[in-house]
Every structure is written in structure tokens, then in C-alpha cells.
Design goal:
By secondary structure, this protein is an all-alpha fold. It contains 7 helices and no strands.
């Protein structure tokens, strides 16, 4: 019996079930979702900045900090990809010698390559999201210092809010992709660790996705 495949299916079902629940929560009880709360805060911040020229410098500094944070995480993603490739042989040895591992099929090497490929894909997706966050934050930097009644763009405020929330979502997706690497890393040490890591991840996401009281 392929325990790795079973564990992967169980882990995937758990994550999909959680995000279906999260989608229901956002639609039915938006006041309890931290994502809606963050979007409202960003919109209010844009409204405050675009209505007060004295806050232009503060706006640029805030956006610069956001770009620097996204840039740091994008660089970290690349470093983790390189590190995973360089440590691939050692991880394979650890996975095959781990004493608590459940027996796996004879094609251990092929399964290990799949696990490593998923881990590399996870970090690559994280790099993409953080890079897109940097790109959109830079666009916001040009938009937010313009007056609301800019010629040829009557709905500049709404577009600026859309852009900054889009950048925030990209950054959030990148962080969540980072979090997903935890179960994949634990998977190297056995299928049961994949399920354990998924449950730990879900517990953490439940806390993060609720508005702090």
C-alpha cells in the first residue's frame, strides 16, 4: 500500500476543506475575517493619504517598507530553492534512515524526487507571489500621491485601493505558500508526518485568519 499517496490525498483534502470553510466564513461573516479587515484598513489608509498632501512622505515610506519586506521574502525563496538543491543528497539519506518511518514502496528514490519537486515548486510559487507584490506596490507608489480628481482617471481612489489590496493579497499568498512548505518538509521523514504537519498548519491558519480580539 502506498502510504505516501494516501497521506498526500488526506493532506490535500484537509487543506481544501479548510479553504472552503474560510471562503464560507468570508462570505457569511465578513467581520470575522482578517482578510476583509486588512482590506478595509488599507482602503481607509489610502483615503487618508490621498486626502492629505502632508502625508505623501509617510505614504512613500510605508510603501517602501512593504516593498522591502516582499523583496526580502522573494530573496529568501530563491535561497531556499538553492539550499534544497544543495542538501538534496543528505535529505534523501535522512528520509531513508529515519527510524519512525512507515514502510514505503520500493521506488523510494522516485517518491523522494517527487517530494523534492513539490518543495521546490512551493518555493518557486512563493517567489512569484512576492515578486508580483513588489511590482504592484511600485504601481501604488505612483498612484497614491496623485490628487483624486486626476484628469483622465476619475476613479483613481478606487483603482488605488484595488491595487494596494491586490499587492496585499499577493504578499499574503506568498506567506501562505511558505507555510505550506512545513508539511512538505516533514513529509521527507514519513507519510504520517505529512498529516501531522498539515494539522499543525491548519491550527495556525485558523488563528491567523480571524480578526484579533
Amino acid at each position: 500500500m502506498n502510504y505516501d499517496l494516501i497521506a498526500f490525498i488526506v493532506s490535500t483534502v484537509l487543506i481544501l476543506a479548510y479553504y472552503l470553510y474560510l471562503n464560507w466564513l468570508v462570505r457569511s461573516k465578513p467581520e470575522r475575517s482578517v482578510h476583509n479587515f486588512n482590506a478595509q484598513i488599507r482602503a481607509e489608509w489610502v483615503d487618508k493619504v490621498m486626502g492629505n498632501e502632508s502625508m505623501n512622505i509617510l505614504a512613500i515610506q510605508t510603501l517602501r517598507n512593504s516593498v522591502m519586506a516582499a523583496n526580502f521574502m522573494a530573496s529568501t525563496s530563491i535561497l531556499l530553492i538553492m539550499g534544497a538543491l544543495n542538501l538534496s543528497d543528505k535529505v534523501q539519506q535522512w528520509a531513508s534512515l529515519w527510524p519512525l518511518d512507515i514502510p514505503v514502496p520500493s521506488s523510494l528514490s522516485e517518491m523522494w524526487q517527487i517530494k523534492l519537486g513539490l518543495l521546490l515548486l512551493d518555493f518557486a510559487v512563493a517567489f512569484y507571489y512576492f515578486s508580483m507584490a513588489i511590482r504592484v506596490f511600485n504601481h501604488v507608489g505612483y498612484m497614491i500621491n496623485l490628487p483624486r480628481e486626476t484628469i483622465g482617471c476619475s476613479d483613481l481612489f478606487k483603482k488605488t485601493c484595488t491595487y494596494i489590496n491586490k499587492a496585499g493579497r499577493y504578499y499574503s499568498f506568498g506567506m501562505r505558500t511558505f507555510f505550506f512548505s512545513l508539511p512538505i518538509i516533514l513529509w521527507f521523514f514519513g507519510p504520517h508526518f505529512l498529516i501531522l504537519g498539515t494539522l499543525i498548519l491548519m491550527g495556525g491558519l485558523i488563528v491567523l485568519d480571524k480578526v484579533p480580539s
